[in-house]
Write a structure and sequence with these properties.
By secondary structure, the chain is an alpha+beta fold. 41% of the residues lie in helices and 12% in strands. The protein has seven helices and five strands.
Length: 149
């Protein structure tokens, strides 16, 4: 399957991550901690809202092979998702260097990490949201991130 960016005009500023994956949960915490304007909302792909988004964008919610980030009405996948979110955060001047890498190479690197994420970083039985501030940014309904018409 190709993971090219696609329009998602009805959803904005959302990170859909594997809530069972320790690395993916850490990514959500990393973004939360650096997103001073609280631009992004978060949803675990294992939730009902996450499963609906996964189905919409062709992701297997039971064995996700990509992260999904919707930024400014565009859905990004794999390494493109990480870059789209990181470019939106302050102090991310290094992202143009990563963007300079060919997309195929970025996705190849992403796939190597994703394929081994549970073995290397671990797996949780339930999504770990951490502090109350992050919990308040977890989406349970798509109406919470619909802002475009």
């Amino acid at each position: 399957m190709r993971w090219d960016a696609v329009a998602a005009p009805d959803v904005d500023d959302l990170l859909v991550f594997d809530g069972d994956c320790v690395l993916c949960s850490r990514l959500a915490h990393f973004v939360h901690d650096r997103d001073a304007t609280q631009r992004f909302k978060f949803v675990a792909i294992q939730s009902s809202c996450g499963r609906a988004l996964a189905a919409r964008f062709g992701i297997n919610a039971d064995n996700p092979e990509t992260t999904l980030a919707i930024v400014d009405g565009v859905a990004y996948f794999k390494g493109g998702a990480a870059l789209a979110v990181l470019e939106s955060l302050p102090r991310s001047r290094w992202t143009p260097m990563a963007r300079a890498l060919p997309g195929a190479l970025r996705d190849w690197l992403y796939d190597r990490i994703a394929r081994n994420r549970y073995a290397v970083f671990g797996r949780r039985e339930a999504c770990w949201t951490g502090d109350e501030a992050l919990k308040s940014r977890i989406v349970s309904d798509l109406d919470e991130v619909s802002g475009r018409s």
